[in-house]
Hints:
Elements lengths: L29 E7 L2 E8 L4 E3 L21 E2 L2 E2 L10 H4 L1 E3 L24 E3 L3 E10 L6 E10 L2 H17 L3 E3 L5 E5 L6 E9 L2 E9 L3
Antiparallel strand pairs: 1-2, 2-8, 3-7, 4-5, 6-8, 8-9, 9-13, 10-11, 11-12, 12-13
Amino acid sequence: xxxxxxxxxxxxxxxxxxxxxxxxxxxxxxxxxxxxxxxxxxxxxxxxxxxxxxxxxxxxxxxxxxxxxxxxxxxxxxxxxxxxxxxxxxxxxxxxxxxxxxxxxxxxxxxxxxxxxxxxxxxxxxxxxxxxxxxxxxxxxxxxxxxxxxxxxxxxxxxxxxxxxxxxxxxxxxxxxxxxxxxxxxxxxxxxxxxxxxxxxxxxxxxxxxxxxxxxxx
Length: 218
């Protein structure tokens, strides 16, 4: 799928607010679950000082704008809004299906899988946060595509901004380029396994949202 243009994956994708969304969160120190407005919510609380893998080089770098009027809200009535499968970028092509089983925790600023952007899995201390996430797969005949959505709540908007800057620095180091316009995104070929990535980053105060679409190299 090396000829796939990841920049086209978001073309003509309709944004709709569903009546119910299933959200899963995983990993870390403790897990709590509760029902809110028809959605199953799972939250993982990670205390300050816990170890994850990433780089600290760009905590003070200036981050790119991470919100846009054309992008869907990441927080609704004070709760994170994980995208349903039919709103994930590229659904017209890949016909996303949500994973039913839990998957391993992958805290920011990790990118995709370890082989995709290995340097983003370097060790660092992560601030206290709560992470919500979902993963998606494709049954399209040309296959080789997957996606994920992570929403993370930090103690403050300043903390979220620093973590966003660290994540975006990892995207750049992994070979992705920031592209502005109506649908701001990062895209390019990953330096690790050569797969193509299309990443949307949004921040709403202390909340940070990352949607990753990955297409395997042929």
